[in-house]
Each structure stands twice: as structure tokens, then as C-alpha cells.
């Protein structure tokens, strides 16, 4: 059995398609397709269900992935031992992060890290839902405290205190009034986000120990990610009220394109954590990144 064929199958299954797997691995989609078909032919089993829109493993394929994942992990760990003989670590660090972290936390962190470790390549997978980072082939993830798994090691990364900000364009507030209490937002046009699973994040407000939860309605709903820019632009254009990470609105607040409202009610919360599995060999790129983040925390450069 060709090891490369097995690796091709796993990469396609994890990526959910031949093209995405090809882009990630720097190979052609046709070569991956040939490798998977050759493997299926040798095994006498279909491992992937293919449609014009998606590729997903069959039951046999899932069972094979379960067995291959730890084996490939051990092989990667064995090869990673060689990094100890290099002056600087090499390899790929794959991170799974929410869209907010990709915008707020990672730009400064990754830029500084790559300057310090030019032989490491970083792949960032943006996903707002919580996932098992190991099962999807990532080395580590970044999430907030309430979404961390108990068996993971977690270290702070990025700002330790953040806030949700509420704002609207001055023209909208001139026309519809400036709310003085969060409940007044129920009668305003509010621009909302919605996760892929259909859940709409609740708007939280807090003042002097009182916590309010609101689910106002409005003319626009967007998915987190790039579409958040659309919501911010619409808020600045006077369409309605937006409630988002303060750091994601900072440029518009500073320029006056957005006007802050209900600021005494802006809820504070602890910043994100880098999390990764314990009790296993830590690849050199991940070890370098963990040490880099710990050093930055000790120096207070991102508090």
C-alpha cells in the first residue's frame, strides 16, 4: 500500500474536497484524485462519496481516518525530532481561530512571530464554531474561556480584557434618537450576526452588577467573518445599530463614522486563549509559538 495514497485520502477527507486539499498541500487536484482512486481500487471499497458540490468520507472512510490519524501523528512526531538538530525550527503551524480573533488578535501576533521564525509556515483556518482541532488536522486553536475543552492546555493570548461596543451612525441617531437604556434597542433597527448553524448571538449589557440579555430585530443579518464588514459599513451609513467587539469598531469610532451609545453598559469579558492538547509530542512549530506567546505575556507587550 502506497503511503502517499493514504496521505492523499486523509488530506482530501479533512479538506472536504480535492481542490481545497490540493491548495493546502501544494499539489494538483488531479494527482490527489488519481491517488484516492488507486487506493479505493486496491482496497475494493469506496472511501469517499463525491458529488458536484462536496466530498465526504463513507463509513469505511471514516473508520480508516480514525486509524490513520494517530499513525500519521506519530510519523510527524518522529520526523519533528530532527528539528532539534536545526538552528531554527521549521515546519507548518496550523491554527483554528474564530473570525474575531483573526481580525483583532492575530495580525500583530503572527507578523512578529513570522519575523522571528522565518522558516515556519502558519496556516490559519477561520471557523466560528467550536471544533476538535486534532480531528481536523490543526495543531492548536484560539477560543474564549467558556468554549475551551477541559483536557486542553490553555494560555492567554492577545488583550486580557475586551468589551462589546454598541454604536450607530450619527445620521441614524439624529433621526431615531439616542437610546439611554439597552431595552430601548428593541424599538430600533439593529444589525445582527448569525452563525452557520442558525443561532443568533444574544446582545449582552452590564452595569453595576445588572446583566441584560436582548435579541433585537432589524433589517440586516450577516454571517461572522468577511460579512461583518458589510454590517459595520451599513451602520456607518445610517441603516441601524451595531453591537460588536470594540476593537472591530475602533477605527469607525475614532473617525466619527460611528457614534458610541450606551457606553456605561458595555460588557467587559476576558480575552482569548491559545489552547492545545497536552500529554503528547509537541511539534517544533507549535512549541515555538507557545514559547513566543508565553514570552509576550511575561513581557506584557499585549496586555
Automatic annotation (TrEMBL):
Q: Which family does it belong to?
A: Belongs to the LysR transcriptional regulatory family.
Q: Does the keyword Transcription apply?
A: yes
Q: What is the superkingdom listed in this entry's lineage? A: Bacteria
Q: Does the record's keyword annotation contain Transcription? A: yes
Q: Name one GO molecular function term.
A: DNA binding
Keywords from UniProt, A to Z, are:
DNA-binding, Transcription, Transcription regulation
Lineage here is: Bacteria, Pseudomonadati, Pseudomonadota, Betaproteobacteria, Burkholderiales
**Domain annotation HTH lysR-type: ranges:** 1-58
Q: What is this protein called?
A: HTH-type transcriptional regulator PgrR
Q: Which Gene3D superfamilies match?
A: 3.40.190.290, Winged helix-like DNA-binding domain superfamily/Winged helix DNA-binding domain
SUPFAM superfamilies in the record, alphabetically? Periplasmic binding protein-like II (SSF53850), Winged helix' DNA-binding domain (SSF46785)
Amino acid at each position: 500500500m502506497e503511503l502517499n495514497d493514504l496521505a492523499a485520502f486523509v488530506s482530501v477527507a479533512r479538506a472536504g474536497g480535492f481542490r481545497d486539499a490540493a491548495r493546502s498541500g501544494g499539489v494538483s487536484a488531479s494527482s490527489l484524485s488519481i491517488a484516492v482512486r488507486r487506493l479505493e481500487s486496491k482496497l475494493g471499497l469506496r472511501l469517499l462519496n463525491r458529488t458536484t458540490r462536496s466530498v465526504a468520507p463513507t463509513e469505511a472512510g471514516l473508520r480508516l481516518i480514525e486509524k490513520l490519524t494517530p499513525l500519521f501523528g506519530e510519523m510527524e512526531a518522529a520526523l519533528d525530532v530532527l528539528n532539534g538538530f536545526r538552528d531554527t525550527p521549521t515546519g507548518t503551524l496550523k491554527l483554528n481561530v474564530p473570525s474575531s480573533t483573526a481580525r483583532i488578535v492575530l495580525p500583530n501576533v503572527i507578523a512578529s512571530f513570522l519575523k522571528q521564525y522565518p522558516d515556519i509556515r502558519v496556516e490559519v483556518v477561520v471557523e466560528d464554531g467550536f471544533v476538535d482541532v486534532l480531528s481536523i488536522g490543526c495543531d492548536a486553536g484560539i477560543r474564549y474561556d467558556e468554549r475551551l475543552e477541559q483536557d486542553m492546555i490553555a494560555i492567554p493570548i492577545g488583550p486580557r480584557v475586551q468589551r462589546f461596543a454598541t454604536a450607530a451612525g450619527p445620521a441614524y441617531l439624529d433621526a431615531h434618537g439616542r437610546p439611554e437604556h439597552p431595552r430601548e434597542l428593541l424599538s430600533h433597527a439593529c444589525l445582527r450576526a448569525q452563525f452557520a448553524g442558525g443561532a443568533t448571538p444574544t446582545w449582552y449589557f452590564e452595569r453595576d452588577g445588572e446583566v441584560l440579555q436582548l435579541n433585537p430585530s432589524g433589517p440586516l443579518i450577516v454571517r461572522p467573518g468577511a460579512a461583518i464588514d458589510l454590517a459595520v459599513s451599513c451602520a456607518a451609513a445610517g441603516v441601524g445599530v451595531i453591537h460588536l467587539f470594540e476593537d472591530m469598531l475602533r477605527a469607525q469610532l475614532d473617525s466619527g463614522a460611528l457614534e458610541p451609545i450606551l457606553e456605561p453598559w458595555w460588557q467587559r469579558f476576558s480575552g482569548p486563549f491559545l489552547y492545545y492538547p497536552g500529554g503528547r509530542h509537541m511539534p517544533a512549530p507549535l512549541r515555538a509559538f507557545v514559547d513566543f506567546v508565553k514570552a509576550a505575556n511575561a513581557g506584557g507587550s499585549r496586555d
